[in-house]
Design brief:
With 258 residues, the protein is of the alpha/beta class. The chain folds into 2 domains: 2-72, Glutaredoxin, CATH 3.40.30.10; 83-206, Glutathione S-transferase Yfyf (Class Pi), Chain A, domain 2 (Up-down Bundle), CATH 1.20.1050.10. It is built from 10 helices and 6 strands. The strands form 2 sheets. A 4-stranded mixed beta sheet has the order 2-1-3-4, covered by helices on one side. A two-stranded parallel sheet has the order 5-6. The longest helix has 30 residues, at 83-112. The relative contact order is 0.14. Bound molecules: glutathione. The site of glutathione (GSH) has 14 residues, from helix 1 and helix 3.
Length: 258
């Protein structure tokens, strides 16, 4: 099994965690390294990680990859067994992937990309206000539960790469107001596979440089654009396009399946 991976991508980290949790051996190729872009483009027209190649099948998009893994390798399930649990787990996975990711990535650029400007006024406050609603809901769902759906599930694996970065991005939850999230975060951080995930991220960040990864142009896609526009930063965003600092995903045309 080969995973087009990246320690920097919350989506790739989610899939990497699921593979490790299920005990499935795989080869990890950093698809975000410039030197691996051509290889990545061959398996995913969008030139995005993660992509899984297994037994001659190419699976694109993190939630589809997890769905495939659960179907093909059902031992150590990551989807809850009940209908209610499954709906809840998928809802939190979607919130992590589409909402939380968009907020956190959109405020992260001034921390790692080569930027000529500083963060637009009000953006950090907008992130804090939106995340406050997420924290309320997550704390509610964690009350009386070790993990989001009781047992460890895809909800936890999708949320962990996101929630573990909120402190560094200065949009942390307050442990006093959200004690259940604080308890969950420390339980997750004590799992060896999460310890390894954080170590891989730290190593990645320590050797981030523009010769190996793209730091001048930002890769913009749907949900992240939606959030920045919905918060009123259209002038800033169109300025980015005009200045040539935007990379667009390629076309996601499905490949033939034998
Ligand atoms: N919906 C996709 C999103 C994947 C995605 O956004 N990947 C980003 C990294 S987090 C990417 O590969 N961007 C290309 C780039 O930055 O060059 C999924 O769930 O797999």
């Amino acid at each position: 099994m080969k995973l087009f991976d990246s320690a920097f991508s919350p989506f790739a980290r989610k899939v990497h965690l699921v593979l490790e949790y299920k005990g499935l051996p795989f080869e990890s190729v950093d698809g975000l390294l410039k030197e691996n872009h051509d290889q990545l483009r061959e398996v995913n027209g969008r030139v995005e990680v993660p992509v899984l190649v297994d037994r001659g099948l190419t699976v694109v998009n993190s939630s589809d990859i997890v769905d495939y893994l659960e179907f093909r390798y059902p031992e150590k399930p990551v989807y809850p067994a009940t209908a209610e649990g499954r709906v809840k787990a998928r809802a939190w996975e979607r919130a992590a992937d589409t909402l939380i990711d968009s907020i956190l990535v959109d405020i992260s650029y001034w921390g790692w990309a080569n930027r000529p400007d500083s963060m637009p006024d009000g953006l950090l406050d907008a992130a804090r206000a939106d995340l406050a609603q997420v924290y309320e809901a997550l704390d509610r769902d964690l009350a009386g539960n070790d993990f989001v759906c009781g047992d460890l599930s895809i909800a936890d694996f999708a949320l962990f790469p996101q929630i573990s970065s909120v402190k560094a991005l200065d949009v942390a939850f307050s442990p006093d107001d959200h004690p259940n999230i604080a308890r969950w975060a420390s339980a997750m951080l004590s799992l060896p596979l999460c310890v390894d995930d954080i170590r891989r991220l730290r190593e990645y960040l320590s050797r981030l440089d523009e010769t190996s990864v793209e730091l001048n142009r930002i890769f913009w896609r749907g949900d992240r654009i939606e959030w920045i526009l919905a918060k009123g930063y259209h002038d800033w965003f169109f300025g980015e396009i005009e200045a040539g600092r935007v990379m667009w995903p390629g076309l996601a045309v499905p490949a033939p399946i034998a």
